[in-house]
Amino acid sequence: MALFETAMVTGVGGRPTQEDSADFYLAEEAGCWVIADGLGGHRGGEVASRAAVEAMLATFRQQPACRPDLLRRAFVAAEREVLERQARDPSRHGMRTTATVLLADASCALWGHIGDTRLYHFVGGRIAAQTCDHSIVQALVTAGQVRPEDMRANENRNLLTRVLGQGKTGRPTFLGEAVAARAGEIFLLCSDGFWELITEEEMELDLAASGGVPRSWLSMMEERIVARATRTHDNYTALAIRRNGESR
Predict the structure, then answer these.
(1) Which helix (H) or strand (E) holds 33?
(2) I need a surface site. Which of 13, 25, 56, 232 has the fewest CB within 10 A?
(3) Domains of the chain
């Protein structure tokens, strides 16, 4: 049995183009999963998100491992690539992208993110950890001015404070210390078009109902999203990763 089982779901929602990008690479000893949500006109968001994903995976392929320095280099490479593409095409000067990256091997997992593309870590069917958005509404929640359960409906939910493509101001957040591997743990990486239409409680309910099978789990959650989405709803994308085997 493979150490990791991965599934992905993506849809354009009510938008004319898909500005989310996601991909992964599995080496013999480690894996890298990346998701990005682009912003910017003239198809710039599409270009920015794809550039970030490709740059991050290229960095990992050079030296597959679950290490903090590699995670940081992946973000540096992605930022550089987005900025270089801005410079080559003035019409895409304002393109930006969020990004979330997971690195994992047989013994541990690490992640980092920028923007409001999230990572959820599930252990024993429950959320053990999740990333904290770089957004105005997240800052209001942290300050106690907005309740966490009201984030999804807040008018400022799409105003981001950090993204790739800003230069020095685009600072990612990294997990402080790698988490030890646990058999059966599951990771969910998803764009805001995904998590905005499904609650954390529903994520856990569908995970239980799916038996922890990534593809089935994503299908259940996608059904909820499609049923609730409006005609102008954002693109949605998610990666689900399950760790098989024994914990170390």
Answers:
(1) strand 30-39
(2) 232
(3) 4-243 (3.60.40.10)
